[in-house]
Amino acid sequence: MTVVGLALGTIFASGIVLALAAWSGWQPPAFTRQVAVRIRHVKAELWKTIAVAVAVAAITRWPVAAISAGAMTWLWPELFGGTRQSRNELASLEAVATWTESLRDTMAAAIGLEQAVIASVDVAPNAIAPQLQRLAGRLRAHIPLPQALATFADEFDDASVDLVVAALIMNARLRGSGLIGTLTALATTAREELDMRTRVEEGRKNLRRSARVIVAVTLAFAGAMLLFSRDYLAPYATVGGQLMLLLVVGGFFAGFVWIRNASRVDPPPRFLATAAQIATQTGVSA
């Protein structure tokens, strides 16, 4: 009866939450390809976490160890990951700088900005080729250049890209001269920021590498103790031992979080209006 009551209470509470969400106008996010990929990734990580927790529980029979191993597996990308994302961000920034220089050289042939953007797709760096192809497609569909450029910047979500796009939007609206010199200066600035970010990323990689070494040594030591000196670890099988292990694991997690925060560099906030905001201001549907 207790289980049935809990189930009915959960269903009733869920119904209230859904009713309030519907009343407030909330809608679930569109089920796009990116969402499907994200769901598959989360499921894979969840099964991996469960497998590790079950394996540790079977070997040690310590609930704290099993929960800690599962939590470490689940949080591993957040605590020690980010290398691939940072590498992709640096590659995109370098590609934008290269594209800015290509756009400057194309406009030197005395053609319009819109034609120069479309022509630059053929020589676009691979890192930003899909975004530029979509930008050219919007322009061919007669979407206003400022809105198309703003959508292009939204795909990067980077303040450095905002600088280049803002200069292009201002030129598209004002039709002023001097864009070639501005693009030259922006390309130089992008190259300097790329060099700075590369040096910062090297320092972050060293911190992440140190954290991985600490984890590997700790796990190797714990595994050796389990294999060759289980009597020494016998006190951890008691309630008091589990509480002490919880304190030790909590100290490790706190240290890893500190290392993660020390290696995290928050990028400067974006300043360019989004494509949706520009569409609202101009009265054009996004």
Question: Would you give an account of this structure?
Answer:
The model is unreliable at 1-9 (pLDDT under 50). The chain has a domain at 85-198. It is elongated. It is mainly alpha-helical. The chain has 11 helices and no strands. Helix 3 (63-80) runs parallel beside helix 10.
Distance between the terminal alpha carbons, to the nearest Å?
54 Å
Strand residues, percent: under 5%
Structural class assignment? mainly alpha
Main sheet record:
none
Helical residue percent band: over 70%
**Element-level helix/strand string:** HHHHHHHHHHH
**Secondary structure tally: strands:** 0
What tags apply to this protein structure?
disordered N terminus; mainly alpha; 286 residues
Report a brief summary of the structure:
The protein has 286 residues and is mainly α. It has 11 helices and no strands.
